[in-house]
Design brief:
This protein is α/β, with parallel strands linked by helices. The chain has eleven helices and ten strands. The protein is 50% helix and 16% strand. Helix 1 links the parallel strand 2 and strand 3. The longest helix is centred in the first third of the chain and has 16 residues. The radius of gyration is 19 Å and the shape is globular.
Length: 267
Amino acid sequence: MADTVLYEVSDGLATITLNRPEAMNALNIATKVALRDAVRTAADDDAVRAVLLTAAGERAFCVGQDLKEHITLLASDREAGTGATMTTVKEHYNPIVRAIAGMAKPVVAGVNGVAAGAGFGLALAADYRIVADTAGFNTSFAGVALTADSGISWTLPRVVGPGRASDLLLFPRTITAQDAYDLGIANRLVPVGELHAEAEKVARQLADGPTVAYAALKEAVAYGLTHTLEETLEKEDELQSRAGASEDHAIAVQAFVNKEKPKYLGR
């Protein structure tokens, strides 16, 4: 894995760190490939029970596409008469977002600074966002004459509503961490110096929790957003049967009866 993305697993928690602070964690090709590999590895590893996605430095979580690399690639496309550069959505962004949103375990985004463009999309793909009070969010796409990618046309309207999503997409500007909290983009605000510790604390709590139940909750919410009430009730029945058959459910019930704190196994 490239050194632009760090990957570490400890006691069920996989920490994925974007590591280009000198470039505000912009996504060049090497970083996108490494991030895609990292989130897929975390999704497929049964030993991983939660994921923390964060970034090095304090200035930026991720400012999206590395435009310095991008402009060079566009020039090469023009010379070759191809559109190879824009295949990055299919080859990189889509697989990354699918892995984050679709993995059967919770993903926490620790947003330490500006999240713009695809960086905003990555944060929205996570299940829970802990945001530094100095951070900001910017859709950015229209500002460089592009449309939305990294799933943001799906996630943003579901978080803030279609009207506010259209406003943020059509008129890109950086909104503050407090604005993001008020809109529901940030789940929790913390002082910037406490961001990494707090994000790890929350992610660790999830890694120690009932993994099967978390996976079912994640699936239920995604399903309910695009299905009728009747279909969702049927899905809840299916998922509750799955969660109820887990070892963790039996552990939780026994611990409740015994007035003890449950020690989950993640299965």
